[in-house]
Amino acid sequence: MSQEYTFEAFDTIIFGTGITEALISSALSKAKHKVLHLSDKKNYGESKVSFEFVDFIEELIENESEEYENVEITFNPFKISDKESKNLDIKLDSLDVKNETLDTTKCSQKTKQLLDKIINSSINVINFDGVDSIENLEKLTKCSKMYYIENYPVLVKSRSSFVNLLISTNLGQFLEFKGLDGNYIQWDNTCSKVPDSKQAVFSDPFLTLKERLALSKFIKYIENTKLNGFENSLDQEYLNIHNLLEKKFNINGRSLAALAYSICGSSSKKSDVLPSDGCKSILNYVESIGRFGDMAYLYPLYGGSSEFSQVFCRSSAVAGGTFIMDAKTTKIGESDTRYLFEIEGMLKAEAKHLVVSPRYCATILNKAPQKRKTSSHGVYILEGNEGLNANQTMLMCVSQLNNKDLENPVYFLQVPSSSKCCPQNKCLVYAWTVSQNCNSDAYKTIKQSFEQLALSKFIVKTENEDDDTQSDENSYSKDVEREIEVVFSVYYTRLEYKSLEVEVDENIHLPKDEANNFDLDNCIKEANKVLQKINPDIELV
Amino acid sequence: MHGRTRKSKEELEDSEYLDNQKQEIARYRSKLDTVFQQRNEKRFTSDCLKSTSELLNLNPELNTVWNYRREILNETFKGLSKEEKQQKLNDELEYINVSIKKNIKSYWMWNHRQWILANMPSPNWNQEAKLVDLLFKLDATNFHGWDYRRYVMSKIQETEDKKVVINREFLYTKKKIDQNFANHSAWHYRSKLLPVILENEKESTLSKEVEMIIQAIYSDPDDQNAWLYFDWLIGFEVEKTTMYNLGIDIASELLELEPNSKYALLSLLKYNLALNENEPISPETKKNYLEYINRLRNIDSLRLGLYNDMEENVMNL
Fold first, then answer.
1. Is the Cβ–Cβ distance between B271 and B251 less than 8 Å?
2. Which of B165, B193, B218 should we substitute to test contact with A (largest number of A Cβ atoms within 10 Å)?
3. Belongs to which family (chain B) (predicted)?
4. Does A158 fall in a domain?
């Protein structure tokens, strides 16, 4: 049924609210371009979004096979403890929930609806145990609005271009961050701090003298490159960052894993992290230490990575940009210089420029880009405030069981217990792994690593404020009996659209989605590329 | 002062800024005159105390005024009960607590703090130790803080078991070194505590210290602290030969991995010379020494004069 809509002309229409698109939107609006910014979703962030608990489960169900695969969900509480450590096998007795007679009489309407959706979906529910599981789910849905879950957690470095941009645009005032308490590497059943500074090298209890010297020389090398720049020959002489660290600096084993995984985000000895890029990451990391807190990484509070997009979108709206979320858009015409769209129930809009994030290419350009599995994830809600260790906000990197080649690290991020990051008196832990691990068994790999981590000994320097002078010389080695109770866990593999690799009109811009868990600086590069094409005079700041 | 941006030339020449400065100076001058006049008249009233506060807020570097302040306080203490005196000094401590934060490196304020505590009928030294610890959270290398800490500990030792206190402090320095092993003050304090520690467990302590030194040297061969601390360790030994040999071993081992380590070369030379102090040396050894000096000249060209001097001394052996 055709309907008469108002007609409005814009300079640019932007599809998708990813960080790159948000940056472009903000810069264009501030430069007095007339911007229409559309999203077919309700939340900001495009592929990196935060949801309240119920919405998160619904997101996984509704977009299964489109954006998520291999979804496995457990809402039956289970314990991991030292005593049962010998029995690590994973129970795979996935029960068919549909055949259970569910006693939902005590449930709230919200839980019942969610349960219905879960049962009628194709996602796997593991270890379902009638009453216990339902009671547990009830608890989580009851306070659903009190915390959020991210489908792709992002950390930023204190001195990254992205943080600098937040400061120079004055948008940092609308965000809150928590500096991480620690960056850990799990090695030989022990979880210890990454030796990332001279001081950390000195205090590290595991390093041999030669390892100390090798690391201290590398750190000095990185500091010098800040003054003199990187050698050009680095990328010709060495295959990747692993190769550089091993061959040039004689760094092996735990130290190598710590630097390559926990700082450079490399995934294996065959990784494609170039030596120069790896060194730049490490330099940026080293520079970031001490800018805001003792650690390099910052975690965004009150909304996670969605906030990154939203803060730039909001600044675009303040500068005059028009935003329509949950919009159903169809292309209704095209001339040499203009594109015409109809937004259902709202308006007809035309514009000269289009900025289209990969997921919208199919509907807007009739050219569907390929999808690929990019990363596999786990989300855990643990009972109590302690979490995996001492209520700390920390990043932990687990190298694979019995894997001498140091392949496929799994990352764990324990987020702050305040600022809506966790349900009350619980602790939220995100897990993820990239590339090769993204098969249907991904959740097994993550689960194995999680259990490995849960049983690890944490070597933490205790910074107890009160009994400062009483501390024993070896008090940094903490060996406590551990028991971790998991009240909810979910695993999934993410499907993301590859950027379209075809020729398009010069006024259609296709920014790539290159943000990763440790770095948003690529978004700035992508945004700048697009802005350059639309109008070379417009800059991000 | 650290961490303060210097005013630009334009800012310094700005008329509004200059006017403000003039007024500030006039205000300061008049306060200064008031205080010195009161002092000359030997007045010790609470009003006088107040005017010293106002003046010291503007400039804490006037020790004469701090002295006058103490004279006033001593005068007001006359005829007071212990409790009243304690109360007065508590107020004074409160005043210095606020002021010292503005200028953490003023000798006179630390001196005044010490005076307050020393004159208190019931001083709380443990409270002071905690305060110093707080200061170290901001700047763990502030030597005023370390000086004051030593003073506080000497007082605590009057009532507590000396050995317990020293042992606790020894652990404390380790903790500070673990936080920043380039903290010279912490290494220095540790060396001051060592004699008492060594009275009990000499062998095990020394070997632990040496282990820590080696760890620090390999974590940053260019940091002087650990090498210096080793020198201090030698000082506690009567029989120094073992220590010299140990020093030579540490330096040679590091040189194998790190041929350009300045401190390793210097140590090698220093301990060898000390070891053979009163003995004739072979031409071979002399040649070795000269080679070390040559290498030092190449890696540390800023101190050519020093190395030339060393060379001359070796030649004359």
1. yes
2. B218
3. Belongs to the protein prenyltransferase subunit alpha family.
4. no
